[in-house]
Every structure is written in structure tokens, then in C-alpha cells.
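Whiteboard transcription, Tuesday session. T.W. wrote the C-alpha cells on the left side:
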């Protein structure tokens, strides 16, 4: 399957590391395994990332690793908070504030399943404004990611049969 031709992005956004930034849109395939793990491949089925469940009795966690199983990001569910959300850390074992990349929050205390705000740890914008806004539902395989509260789309997940 050929990749669609899109114009290059004038301002690519780096959240984790520059090796994970592409100046153009591209398609990936996300396969949900029965174990709860996910496999992310390119359209030629070459493994790009794996998402592994690492739940403990205290946290629901996801570990994102590269094709060689090298840890990239650990995402840990925040518990006992007014807003449901997650915290993401560089690598596979850290929960140190110095390794924190971002946190997520639902914008309302009533846990809006269709809307999540993402706040980068190293912010240059206002503390109260989100860096990304995710609408839709990842678990139902359809969501859109916007820059802040703008209408600028930077990523989409669309269920394809």
C-alpha cells in the first residue's frame, strides 16, 4: 500500500525525542492483541513500536518499546485524583519528576471519556493551557489530536476495516 502524499509540516512537534519526529504525515497500523498489548507497524508491517501492559496492584501502566524491546516511555495511570489521567516518563522504570514528559487530564471532574488534555512537563506556554487536546476515543479506535485548544490537527486515529 502506497503512502499518501502530504505536504511537509512546517513545524514538526517533538515530545519524546527527535528520532520520533517526521516532517510529514504517515500511516501506521495498530494491532490490539488479546493480552491487551498493542503492536504498531508501518504499512509494510515493519514493527515500529510495541505497547506492553505492565499493571501492578497500585497502577495501570503501559510500556512503549521500540522494535528491539528498548523502553521508550512508561505511561502510568494517576490514581486517587479528582481528574482521571496518566503520567508519562522517559524510559521504562522511572517515576522521577526529572524524567516526566507529560500528564493528561480530563477537562471535567465528571471524567469525560471523549476529551483529554495533554500538558507537557517542559512548558513554554501558560501553565493552565493544554499543549494537546485529544477528542474521540482511542479505545474505540477513532480519535483526533489537536494543538492546544486550536483546530489544528496533528494526528488522527481512524478505524479502517
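and on the right, the sequence the group agreed on:
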Amino acid at each position: 500500500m502506497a503512502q499518501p502524499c502530504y505536504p511537509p509540516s512546517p513545524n514538526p512537534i517533538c515530545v519524546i525525542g527527535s528520532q520520533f519526529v517526521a516532517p510529514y504525515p504517515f500511516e501506521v497500523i495498530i494491532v490490539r492483541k488479546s493480552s491487551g498489548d498493542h503492536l504498531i507497524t508501518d504499512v509494510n508491517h515493519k514493527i515500529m513500536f510495541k505497547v506492553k501492559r505492565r499493571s501492578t496492584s497500585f497502577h495501570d501502566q503501559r510500556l512503549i518499546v521500540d522494535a528491539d524491546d528498548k523502553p521508550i516511555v512508561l505511561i502510568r495511570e494517576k490514581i486517587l485524583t479528582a481528574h482521571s489521567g496518566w503520567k508519562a516518563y522517559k524510559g521504562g522504570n522511572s517515576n522521577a519528576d526529572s524524567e516526566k514528559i507529560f500528564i493528561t487530564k480530563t477537562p471535567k471532574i465528571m471524567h469525560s471519556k471523549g476529551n483529554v488534555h495533554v500538558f507537557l512537563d517542559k512548558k513554554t506556554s501558560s501553565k493552565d493551557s493544554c499543549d494537546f487536546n485529544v477528542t474521540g476515543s482511542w479505545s474505540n479506535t477513532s480519535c483526533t489530536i489537536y494543538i492546544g485548544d486550536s483546530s489544528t490537527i496533528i494526528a488522527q486515529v481512524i478505524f479502517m476495516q
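Someone added at the bottom: Residues 55 and 127 are 30 Å apart (CA to CA).
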